[in-house]
Design goal:
Length: 599
């Protein structure tokens, strides 16, 4: 009797580790992510996709399990073991844990579905061993675990725009060390250090990109004697333009490291040690294995190592930031705090301390807010709902109405327009005929299971390929690529270079610098740049590459963009928008009405 064998290829590394088994007869190979799929496809190895085994209802099931686990895991047992000065590490790291839990839940349910359908005798695997071992034991399926001797927990990487189209990658640890030293040097060299004056006339800005918010920072500097920048994730000064803005507005740079005396350093190290010891006790709680499970199959052992590493590393940062922020708030008084990412780790710690010091906080809406109903459950991981003691400054009545529907009190919502987009409205409309801007994003997928489908990423790539061919076929315009500024789950840049390595690709650049030079914007999946193009009266095409209910978006419902759902319609849509002047003008008119309401 022929043995029914399956190989699980979880990622690109598995494709290398397991390759000696790919030639075995009567063996099905199943890939779990886009990179594994691409690697096998490149080498001509026949395989199946995990996507094909999911039932439609599985996507909502995966999302619901992920959200429940992410929001509640730290509340189930001894919360005090995860706390420091009323901060709970479980609350602080929700967004990054959500991604880890989502991956493991998706893979576990995928394995369950594969085994239901294929009923194998033997599974050959590597990265997924800990995830599959319990269910395989119950079903009496033999597992062949191919051990990766070179395994090393991958450090987070930071991508830094370096020169024109060039980016460099650094480990997060190296990047933060360089950033801290640079901030201290610049602060001292340019005498930008903060000296306290009237605290009511002092405002603290958290992690602002001064180039993007030049006008806002200029306006604030006219009304506040002390405009103070505290940037923990990116340097306040990184090029000549940012330096000139800070000098022109007489802004001050505040660095945590300036307050790190030897005595404080010892205090931090002592508290970090205690917190880590408590976390280790918590993570050895046997009940966690049962908590992180589905259908009696646990995914805890599969992610415990990385989960614990995140909690340990972030707990050290929590103690460090909290200790130094307390010193800063004791030394300096601020009339207000202005920020734009209150779901971010660093902001949560500062907001916690600001609340205790009764410092008012205003959150700026920094991007369009999706009003697709399926995203509502992911709001806790987004800077959408203002936290306690905070108000939110929104673009316009559309966002206000949305927040009211989510039970945000009206007195916590300020309709201010968007300072970042004021210059867009004041720009002279330039109808250049020489370029088409393609903004690529898969950002809508980052928190939900639909966006992790391999087919979605393939459709994303195929869409870009068709777009570029269609532009070449129907116009002499030059294509320009704008990557989404956030870190993507799957980088598309190398794929674009394979098609045409002469196409300019930008990432960290002001959108209006590119929009002002284009005649058309094509967006893959929803992004704020869509609204920005509408303000500048540029016609737009929105191409959906994922099953994300994009037809519910306000841009689509108001016919403000040419919405494309299938690959077959991309070419004819580009042709229409390039050749039908009346249609273009109608789109622009609809978009103009919408942008005035939205901002």
């Amino acid at each position: 009797m022929t043995e029914n064998k399956i190989i699980f290829v979880a990622n690109k590394k598995d494709a290398s580790i397991l390759k000696e088994y790919f030639s075995e007869t009567d063996t099905k190979i199943i890939t779990f992510d886009i990179e594994a799929h691409q690697e096998l496809k490149k080498n001509g190895i026949e395989h199946l996709l995990l996507d094909n085994y999911f039932k439609k209802k599985d996507y909502e099931l995966i999302d619901n399990i992920t959200i429940k686990n992410t929001l509640n895991w730290h509340k189930e047992y001894q919360q005090s073991l995860l706390e420091f000065n009323e901060l709970n590490i479980g609350n602080l790291i929700q967004p990054e844990l959500e991604l880890l839990i989502l991956t493991n839940v998706r893979n576990l349910i995928g394995i369950e579905r594969i085994l239901e359908k294929e009923n194998p005798d033997l599974i050959i695997l590597s990265s997924l061993t800990k995830l599959a071992e319990e269910i395989c034991f119950k079903k009496k399926i033999v597992m062949k675990d191919v051990i990766d001797e070179t395994f090393k927990l991958k450090e987070d990487e930071i991508v830094i725009p370096f020169f024109k189209n060039t980016n460099i990658k650094l480990s997060k640890q190296k990047y933060l060390k360089i950033k801290k030293n640079l901030d201290l040097i610049l602060e001292k060299f340019f005498k930008l250090n903060f000296e306290q004056k009237n605290h009511e006339k002092s405002i603290l800005l958290l992690d602002f990109n001064v180039v993007f918010f030049e006008k806002l920072i200029t306006e604030i500097s006219l009304n506040f004697e002390n405009l103070v920048l505290l940037n923990q994730r990116r340097p306040a000064i990184w090029n000549k333009e940012s330096l000139n803005i800070i000098k022109k507005t007489n802004s001050k740079i505040l660095t945590l490291e300036k307050f790190l005396s030897n005595e404080v350093k010892l205090e931090i190290q002592h508290n970090q040690k205690n917190v880590k010891e408590n976390i280790e006790i918590f993570f050895n709680e046997p009940k966690l294995k049962e908590y992180f499970s589905h259908n009696g199959n646990s995914f805890w052992n599969a992610m415990k190592g990385k989960f614990m590493a995140i909690a340990m590393n972030r707990s050290s940062e929590m103690v460090y930031i909290d200790t130094l922020i307390k010193i800063i708030f004791e030394k300096f008084e601020f009339g207000k705090i202005l920020e734009w990412a209150d779901s971010a780790f660093e902001e949560k710690i500062i907001i916690h301390n600001a609340r205790k010091n009764k410092i008012p906080i205003v959150i700026l809406q920094h991007s369009i807010i999706s009003q697709v109903q399926k995203y509502d459950k992911f709001i806790p991981f987004q800077p959408t709902i203002p936290s306690l003691n905070s108000k939110i400054a929104v673009y316009g009545e559309t966002t206000k109405k949305f927040l009211l529907s989510k039970n945000v009190p009206e007195n916590k919502i300020l309709v201010t327009g968007s300072p970042r987009h004021d210059d867009f409205f004041k720009s002279t409309i330039k109808n250049y005929k020489n370029s088409i801007l393609i903004a690529t994003t898969s950002a809508s997928s980052i928190y939900n299971s639909n966006g992790r489908d391999i087919k979605s990423y393939e459709k994303w790539e195929k869409s870009i390929e068709i777009i570029l061919k269609s532009i070449k076929k129907y116009s002499d315009k030059k294509p320009i690529i704008k990557l989404h500024p956030s870190k993507e789950f799957y980088e598309i840049q190398s794929f674009i270079k394979k098609i045409d390595d002469s196409i300019p690709i930008y990432k960290d650049i002001k959108p209006n610098d590119l929009l002002n030079t284009c005649d058309l914007l094509i967006v893959t999946n929803v992004s704020t740049i869509l609204l920005e193009a509408m303000i500048l009266k540029k016609p737009t095409i929105l191409i959906s590459t994922q099953d994300q209910n994009t037809d519910e978006e306000i841009f689509v419902k108001n016919n403000a963009t040419l919405y494309v759902q299938d690959l077959e319609s991309i070419e004819k849509s580009i042709k229409k928008i390039l050749t039908d002047i009346e249609f273009r003008n109608k789109l622009i008119k609809n978009a103009d009405k919408l942008s005035l309401i939205h901002i």
